[in-house]
Amino acid sequence: MHPIPSGTRDVLPDEMRELRALSNKLRQVFEDHGYGEVYTPTIEYDTPAIRLGGDAGVYRLFDDHGAVLQLRSDITVPLARVATTRYANVEPPLRFSAFAHVYRGVRPHRGQMREHLQAGCELIGSPSPEGTVEALTVLCRALDATGLRDYRIGLGDASMYPALMASMGVPVGRRQTLLDHLMDRNLVGLERDAEGLDPLLVEVPQRRGGPDVLDGLPGGEGLRRVHEDLAPDIAERVIFDLGLVRDLSYYTGSVFEVYDPSIGAPIGGGGRYDDLMGQLGRPMPAVGFQIGVSQLHEALATGERTA
Amino acid sequence: MHPIPSGTRDVLPDEMRELRALSNKLRQVFEDHGYGEVYTPTIEYDTPAIRLGGDAGVYRLFDDHGAVLQLRSDITVPLARVATTRYANVEPPLRFSAFAHVYRGVRPHRGQMREHLQAGCELIGSPSPEGTVEALTVLCRALDATGLRDYRIGLGDASMYPALMASMGVPVGRRQTLLDHLMDRNLVGLERDAEGLDPLLVEVPQRRGGPDVLDGLPGGEGLRRVHEDLAPDIAERVIFDLGLVRDLSYYTGSVFEVYDPSIGAPIGGGGRYDDLMGQLGRPMPAVGFQIGVSQLHEALATGERTA
């Protein structure tokens, strides 16, 4: 009776109260670090710029004037747009945060949500390593403020595998297939389709651990510098993960994900998008992260139950 | 460069901070009165029940499975749905609040917003007059908490004009036209299309003022009882408005709107919807209200500037 779309849910008062409290703690840390909250519209024009956020067209709308719109699928691209339009004459770096629902396509049978609440920060106009260090710091301080204790940060570099493929002369036509397997963490597919290529292409993305896994790799120095500049309590949460490739196409350098032993899926993630601002007309390096508020809530609740 | 859809806007940090503070004040009053917050999905099936919220199909979506969805156009119907599904075995009255964006069609050139944030309460299972009195009380206590001072409550009855037309034998085919003029506050159209009918049909909806304007009218006793049971400081804000017809079709009895001298449009409104729960399969009387958070913010800001 009165079903709601798969991948959506009703949040009832007890949980809602906890989600609000959690959001308020995150928001306070973001504000304390200078990241003022911005709200951008849920309905957006379906433009090439917006399509950079991925998942284009999953939720296409037609309004009463016949215009084609789509639902916000990401908070990074809209905040980057605000930086180019509303802050065009403001000296960078710019710091923004957002708390907004994003709408994404789902793969049936995986229990994925179509609508989920993200809390995130964007630091626009600050290069690596210092920008990346700041983003990771705000991310960890925010998680710390919620009481999450045992989380780890997986840290990789979105440019590393493409550079590796290029340096090893992988034919251009085969590169996207290998990348797609990485995004899906599909090792079997990767091994099959890297047949006949340098074995490093299968070995490197399985490397996880301390700074030594970076030795001799393109992009390794950049990741090492980020790690060295982190506060000790944050640095010790980092696990280098050379197979980490986030599935948004705009990432250019360091990428990261937050894992907690209490739940299987990442709680959040982010990375550098040093080309996106240029595509929007105001070239600047940038980095950002998002936290899934419901995922964080679930991790905290599970952690309490098992503590 | 990078336009956003008309009727939507970016909210920047200074304003966002104020909107959050305002929402928190409203939420605290709602909680204090027992109205726990519920979040329902932004994307809904396009069902007859959802269509009761009006504006059906203005934002129709097609997802990647081909299902037809639409954007939340109202918070009353989704909360009524939650009352029938998730609280099916809970003894009424049920009290819920919501803070959510609603998406509506716009009339060009009027500066109307397609996306706006509503804060509202629904009291499900409480008849008139006591339910209506409680809703008006929570509404006014919430507005009081924000510091709004000079607001007035327009109070009318959605059943009054239809009853008047019926009692005067207005041909059924002409009734909707007259009602449409009332909704548009179009007196010229009303006079034209009521030509040859009882002059009371034009005179009554222009009555505004104290309880004496109710004399001898169908529904007048009900409104008078509501007024008598209100706390004195709330009762003195009430102006009876017999032309008040809210444009959502589910209202059955008392309807009200909040006006503030500092802005032209209503800040909020609500009313009784005693038939809606039955249409959803769980017959119960109900009443609710919504506050436009941006409209309230504007009224407060304008009031401060002119004070």
Please give the CATH class of chain A: Alpha Beta
- Placed side by side, the strands forming the largest sheet of chain A appear as 1-5-6-12-11-10-7-9-8
Would you tell me the structural class of the helices and strands of chain A? alpha+beta
Which bin fits the share of residues in helices of chain A? 25-40%
CATH superfamily of chain A: Bira Bifunctional Protein, Domain 2
Multimeric organization: homodimer
Please name the CATH architecture of chain A. 2-Layer Sandwich
Give the terminus-to-terminus CA distance of chain A: 38 Å
Count structural domains of chain A. 1
pLDDT < 50 stretches of chain A: none
Number of strands of chain A: 12
In short:
Two copies of one chain form a homodimer. By secondary structure, chain A is of the alpha+beta class.
Describe this structure in words.
Two copies of one chain form a homodimer. Chain A has 307 residues and is α+β, with helices and mostly antiparallel strands. Chain A has a single domain, classed as 2-Layer Sandwich (BirA Bifunctional Protein, domain 2). Chain A is 37% helix and 20% strand. Chain A is built from twelve helices and twelve strands. In chain A, the strands form two sheets. A nine-stranded mixed β-sheet of chain A has the order 1-5-6-12-11-10-7-9-8, with helices on both faces. In chain A, strands 2-4-3 form a three-stranded antiparallel β-sheet, with no helix packed on it. In chain A, a hairpin with a 5-residue loop joins strand 3 and strand 4. In chain A, helix 1 packs antiparallel against helix 4 (130-146). The longest helix of chain A is centred in the first third of the chain and has 20 residues, at 13-32. The radius of gyration of chain A is 20 Å and the shape is globular. The two termini of chain A are 38 Å apart. The mean pLDDT of chain A is 91. The interface between A and B is large, with 55 and 55 residues. Strand 3 of chain A pairs antiparallel with strand 3 of chain B.
